Amino acid sequence: MVIAQITDTHIKPEGVLAYARLDTTPYLRRAVEHLLALKPRPDVVLATGDLVDGGLPEEYRRLHDLLAPLSMPVYLIPGNHDNRDALAAAFTDHAYLPSGGQFMQYVVEGYPVRLIALDTLDPGRVGGLLCAERLGWLAARLAEGPARPTLIFMHHPPFMTGITQMDTHGLANAGEFAEVVRRHPQIERIVCGHLHRPIQSRVGGTLASTAPSTAHQVALDLEEEPLAFTMEPPACLLHVWSAQTGLVSHTSYIGDFDGPYLFADGTKRAR
Fold first, then answer.
1. How many other CB atoms are found less than 10 A from the CB of residue 157?
2. pLDDT given at position 271
3. pLDDT at 117
């Protein structure tokens, strides 16, 4: 099973630039083309929040059109830039999205890896939250499948990174979340967005990671400098499952690069 992860697409209304500098739409369009060209093609795509930039209905309509070419199921969760109601209204064809209740949390069955979506959105705040209700829901869902390899996907990462300006806007109750995770060894991975960088840490006895953005990246700055972004290469993550290895994750850069060249004689391999 191949699980692709894209994140922090930050789609804006047509003609509007993010940070008065960046048109995120062509970047997502290239990411979609990249996913469709992969061999093997991913079985599913997880989009881990900050899907649009302002939570506007027109942004979600644009996002829907951009994602429509993907032939595999796409599973969405909100980030701090998102609006639950506007997201649900634009993606009524995504039947897995909860039709009632306050939070966008759900379980995807039927694959070798069980997928659990968590909603960390705390409206009005950049940082995230998993309240008692959401943590209780997670614990109940995990108890239903103690022998099933499981991947949790969420927007806000449950760990500190050393990027000070991002850490001030992390997951408020990461310690409580980690205690739930620790009780459930079937959790193979926790995959997140928010940080616009590939970062890994252990959380509750398992591995948690964040994915790069499909557009702009947060500058890697381990000093207390003002937050900035860079145009480092966009990428997605590919989480590859087999019973022999468990989950193995790869960073797949989006763009045109020289190669591939055969090590044996330096000639370029035909595609």
1. 28
2. 65
3. 98
Instruction: For residue 107, list its beta bridge partners.
Output: 116
Phi/psi at 31 (5° precision): -65, -40
pLDDT band at 126 (very low <50, low <70, confident <90, very high): very high
Kindly report the CATH number assigned to the domain that includes residue 142: 3.60.21.10
pLDDT in tens, 71-118: 999 999 999 999 999 999 999 999 999 977 789 999 999 999 999 999
The number of beta carbons lying within 10 Å of the beta carbon of residue 11 is 31
Those residues with Cβ within 8 angstroms of residue 206's Cβ, 6 or more apart along the chain or in another chain = 181, 185, 187, 188, 189, 190
Q: Position of tokens 């055969």?
A: 262
pLDDT band at 223 (very low <50, low <70, confident <90, very high): confident
Distance CA 42, CA 44 (A): 5
CA 109 to CA 115: how far, in whole Å? 7
pLDDT in tens, 183-219: 999 999 999 999 999 999 999 999 999 999 999 999 9
pLDDT of residue 225: 80
Per-position b or e across 183-222, b if 16+ CB within 10 A of its CB: ebeebbbbbbbbbbbebeeebbebbbbbbbbbbbbbbebe
Q: Is position 212 within any domain?
A: yes
267 CB contacts (<8 Å, ≥6 apart)? 261
Q: How far is CA 219 from CA 139, 153, 166, 223, in A?
A: 35, 23, 10, 11
**How would you list the strands of the sheet with 74-77, edge to edge?**
74-77, 44-48, 2-6, 235-242, 246-253
Write out the residue range of the structural domain in which residue 199 sits.
2-253
What is the C-alpha separation between 84 and 96, in angstroms, rounded? Answer: 14
* Domains held by the chain: number: 1
